[in-house]
Write a structure and sequence with these properties.
Radius of gyration: 20 Å
Number of strands: 2
Strand content: 5-15%
Number of domains: 1
Largest sheet: 2 strands, antiparallel
Distance between the termini: 26 Å
Helix content: 55-70%
Number of helices: 6
Length: 171
């Protein structure tokens, strides 16, 4: 089986990195939407957890939605707005579910792109980092976030993503 894969890889070498479908573009869009949903759901979930730490949420009870970030060892707290506790909890769960759904779609599209166009460094890295981003491990999520930030910087500076640059360095 591995000899067959190698033969297909060698036969498709001239098309390596040239996607014949838009699956890669759709996968990256799904990944972007997933990240945006996560970024919005985290402050809402934190606000709900703070408000319900010692008692259940009551109708009409409000909580302060705060953006928290640790920068150079200093925690920054930026209050955003006040919101009903129950609504914050519901929206946090909905957005978090959307994050997981779009993340799964992103992984599925990346795997399908590998199946259709053959594996490239770019789509293998994207699928791996998407899987890390969906894990519950905060270190894995941090590694994936760092990769996506570096990948975005590469796209803006060179016009190609990190995986395509690696392929260029190797060739």
């Amino acid at each position: 089986m591995s000899q067959l894969r190698l033969a297909v890889f060698i036969a498709n070498r001239e098309n390596y990195g040239k996607s014949q479908t838009d699956l890669d573009k759709y996968s990256k869009t799904a990944k972007t939407v997933s990240g945006a949903l996560l970024a919005v759901s985290v402050p809402l979930n934190d606000a709900f957890r703070r408000a319900t730490k010692y008692s259940a949420a009551k109708p009409g009870q409000t909580t302060l939605v705060i953006f928290e970030k640790k920068v150079l060892g200093i925690k920054i707290h930026q209050p955003l707005f006040e919101m009903d506790v129950i609504t914050a909890g519901r929206w946090g769960k909905v957005l978090n579910s959307g994050n997981r759904i779009f993340g799964g779609v992103s992984i599925g599209l990346a795997l399908r792109d590998m199946n259709v166009n053959g594996p490239t460094t770019s789509n293998v890295l994207d699928a791996t980092m998407s899987a890390l981003a969906l894990s519950k491990n905060s270190y894995a999520t941090g590694i994936a976030a760092g990769y996506f930030i570096v990948n975005t910087a590469f796209i803006f500076s060179t016009g190609e993503d990190f995986g395509q640059n690696i392929d260029g360095w190797i060739d």
